[in-house]
Amino acid sequence: QFLKQLGIHPDWQFVDVYGMEPELLSMVPRPVCAVLLLFPITEKYETFRTEEEERIKAKGQDVKSSVYFMKQTINNACGTIGLIHAIANNRDKMNFGKIFLVWFLLAFLFFFLNCGKPWRERCAIRVTHESSAHEGQTEAPSIDEKVDLHFIALVNVGGHLYELDGRKPFPINHGETSDDSFLEDAIEVCKKFMERDPEELRFNAIALSAA
Predict the structure, then answer these.
(1) pLDDT tens string 59-72
(2) Nearest Cα residue to 85 out of 102, 107, 106, 62
(3) Catalytic machinery residues
(4) In CATH, what number is assigned to the domain containing residue 36?
(5) Which of 84, 118, 130, 188 is least enclosed, having the fewest CB within 10 Å?
(6) Which tens digit of pLDDT belongs to each residue from 51-108?
(7) How many domains does the chain have?
(8) Where in or outside the cell is it found (predicted)?
């Protein structure tokens, strides 16, 4: 429903990734241009996140200027931010309608030019996020309610796999990938999240793939 509101061409869809074994990955329609991972925010993860940020700041990393990345400034909107990251970094693959172009411009203006101002939360993304959330069958949490699950996006930009997380200060470059191997490469990143919290079961992945 959210994709329809943005005017995304019906040639693209989000599908469940039922498992990380090769035979289950083979069920996902190709090509795949983004993967969204839902995972629990635990003490182990927060410790890793802090260490990772310090390591990257010290050593540096290569991030292409064409990567579209935005910070999350709205509580409980990580799914919406993940969708934005997935779609905006695949502009060359999708046929955007006029609705998306207008919406994307508003998102850019409000989130980048005014991200430090207190009225930023009244922008179009908040409106679209809230209206879509309340149309689902599951009751959506309050925008200010504290939750311990989080969405990130994994995308292929210029032959590199990037992790885009609005809670982090910058994209994370996970190395080289290709259109053919992207799903498998992204799942390897997902597995690392799971390995850091082996007792946790609350992981889920969906892929943005051809319809």
Answers:
(1) 999 999 999 998 88
(2) 107
(3) 78, 150
(4) 3.40.532.10
(5) 118
(6) 999 999 999 999 999 999 988 877 778 888 898 899 889 888 876 655 555 555 555 5
(7) 1
(8) Cytoplasm
